[in-house]
Recover the amino acids of this structure.
């Protein structure tokens, strides 16, 4: 662990201790009916400071894990040939070598109009950052496919089963009823721009530059789609599926637990609703459960204590690891809704089994030196899809009466 990361993490833990100390005093003042505006403002400042400190720690931890590009030679002659050809295309627009390479490699959809596949090193670097930055991708299941649609069969009615004696007749089995889930991949793009001077500079690592330019944009777009995407030209987010009260849950819907108060937690024992949400998920899914909420909602639950006065939210003791709520990891997804009347602001469940991210192998780049002279644009695309694959695995907390 670097000195900067150590210092940042120590600062984060000191801020959390100050946060708890002031919040304890604030709660005591409220109980004595002597709370004041100054105390509330200080609490808000500490809350923001805690969020800021956590972001610094997470950023440094991510930077420490980032794979280096260009630090070692490619693994094979094919990799070296691809990298050399791609570098010539990006810097000079020379497409002859990379066209020959992709034809020799039998790459699908290879054409000047569609762009060219990036080397494996760049794709790995971008995908690594997506897993680290995109909050839902980091906890969801993942499949890589070479086609545009991933199809997953599932049984709507299983084989008959039961117990029989040693000499009892065995009833004949029936053909299982199968249905199919389809997860189409949609095109996600980014278009970084460079000057000719940057491209001519041999000291500039073009691989690293492209990866750095597109991975944050891709991660932000994915984060929004995996939560709220409509399924039309985007992956389908888990909040876009129909919801029903968990007591009448059925396949194809996501179950909800109501807080009993419109737009808020209950005033008394608010953590009871979080416990209800946890236990609405079956034990087999709960073992790998994760809370998902945005920063504002996390700020609310961060102040909650249990019946013996312990804080429910606890920071991780290791940089880069998620904090916990009642022992389960908390993933902060800014695309989750704020607490409001009828909002679905908190999700809990086994996202590894509940939500599937589908990646089509290959990231492509099309060089465009004409549309924005004197800049050169790089139209970079990847295909990704997503959707709920197990409707029992995820439950939502609904802030309604």
């Amino acid at each position: 662990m670097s000195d900067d990361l150590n210092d940042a993490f120590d600062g984060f833990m000191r801020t959390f201790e100050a946060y708890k100390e002031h919040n304890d005093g604030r709660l005591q003042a409220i109980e004595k009916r002597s709370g004041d505006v100054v105390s509330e403002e200080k609490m808000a400042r500490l809350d923001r400071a805690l969020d800021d400190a956590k972001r610094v720690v997470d950023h440094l931890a991510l930077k420490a894990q980032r794979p280096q590009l260009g630090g070692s030679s490619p693994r094979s002659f094919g990799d070296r040939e691809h990298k050399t050809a791609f570098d010539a295309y990006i810097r000079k627009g020379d497409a002859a070598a990379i066209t020959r390479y992709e034809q020799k490699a039998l790459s699908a959809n290879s054409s000047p109009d569609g762009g060219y596949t990036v080397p494996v090193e760049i794709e790995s670097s971008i995908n690594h950052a997506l897993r680290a930055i995109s909050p839902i991708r980091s906890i969801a299941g993942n499949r890589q496919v070479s086609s545009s649609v991933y199809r997953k069969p599932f049984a709507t009615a299983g084989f008959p089963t039961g117990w029989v004696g040693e000499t009892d007749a065995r009833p004949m089995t029936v053909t299982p009823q199968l249905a199919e889930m389809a997860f189409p991949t949609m095109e996600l793009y980014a278009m970084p721009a460079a000057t000719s001077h940057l491209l001519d500079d041999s000291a500039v690592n073009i691989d690293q530059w492209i990866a750095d330019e597109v991975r944050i944009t891709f991660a932000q777009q994915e984060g929004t789609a995996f939560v709220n995407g409509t399924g039309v030209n985007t992956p389908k987010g888990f909040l876009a599926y129909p919801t029903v009260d968990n007591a009448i849950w059925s396949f194809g819907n996501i179950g909800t637990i109501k807080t009993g108060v419109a737009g808020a937690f209950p005033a008394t024992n608010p953590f009871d609703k979080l416990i209800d949400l946890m236990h609405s998920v079956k034990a087999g899914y709960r073992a790998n459960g994760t809370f998902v909420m945005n920063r504002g909602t996390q700020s609310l639950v961060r102040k909650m204590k249990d019946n013996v006065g312990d804080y429910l939210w606890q920071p991780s003791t290791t940089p880069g690891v998620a904090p916990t709520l009642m022992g389960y990891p908390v993933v902060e997804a800014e695309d989750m809704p704020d607490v409001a009347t009828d909002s679905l602001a908190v999700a809990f469940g086994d996202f590894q089994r509940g939500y599937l991210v589908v990646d089509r192998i290959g990231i492509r780049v099309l060089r465009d030196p004409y549309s924005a002279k004197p800049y050169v644009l790089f139209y970079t695309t990847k295909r990704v899809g997503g959707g709920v694959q197990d409707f029992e695995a995820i439950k939502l907390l609904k802030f309604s009466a």
User: Anything to note?
Assistant: Residues 80-154+177-234+358-384 form a domain with the Major capsid protein gp5 fold fold (CATH 3.30.2400). The chain has eleven helices and 17 strands.
